[in-house]
Amino acid sequence: VQAWRAVRWPPGQELVAAHVQALRDGPLIQVASSDRHTVKPWFQGRIDYAPTVPDALPGFTLLGGRVQSLAGQPTAVLALQLRLHQIDVFIRPADGVQPPERSQQRGFNIVQWRDGAMQYWAVSDVDGADLLRLARQWPAPLH
Questions:
Q1: Of 82, 61, 75, 60, which is closest to residue 30 (Cα–Cα)?
Q2: Which of 6, 93, 111, 117 is 20 to 30 A distant from 49 in Cα terms?
């Protein structure tokens, strides 16, 4: 059993490289759906945890999901859209809570946060304020 913990890695350059690779070479989406009840169950058996897939995030559209290697581990990725901008949200299990924290790498904005059950990294060329809004709208985990 993999012991998951809150981490500050992967470094921003790996997040941006994974985002750009999916945009350029694909697959951008392995399960295409705006319905969380289609996307969430798709991850079963593909990764060893159940990622949070929100019902609705005002202004953002769920396009689907994929599994992508990040820091050598299969990682759940949700593909979202805001206007014409693609947003990837990488999701891994993690303990602890951390409010959204923004950084930038090679012109891409990255917002990282933890909700006590999962750790998230949102990556996009969309304005950083929009990514912060996404993180603040993200649903709290059900306990």
A1: 75
A2: 111
Q: In sequence order, what are the beta bridge partners of 81?
A: 61, 86
The DSSP code for 11 is P
Sheet containing strand 97-105, strands side by side: 31-32, 61-70, 73-82, 85-93, 118-124, 108-115, 97-105
From 108, 106, 102, select the one nearest 88 (Cα to Cα). Answer: 108
Amino acid at 79: A
Q: What are the pLDDT digits (tens) for 86-141?
A: 999 999 999 999 999 999 999 999 999 999 999 999 999 999 999 999 999 998 87
Distance between CA 17 and CA 38 in Å, rounded? 27
CA 123 to chain centre: 8
Q: What is the pTM of this model?
A: 0.90
Question: What is the structure's pLDDT at 11?
Answer: 75
Cβ atoms of residues 107 and 87 within 8 Å: no
CA distance 141 to 64: 20
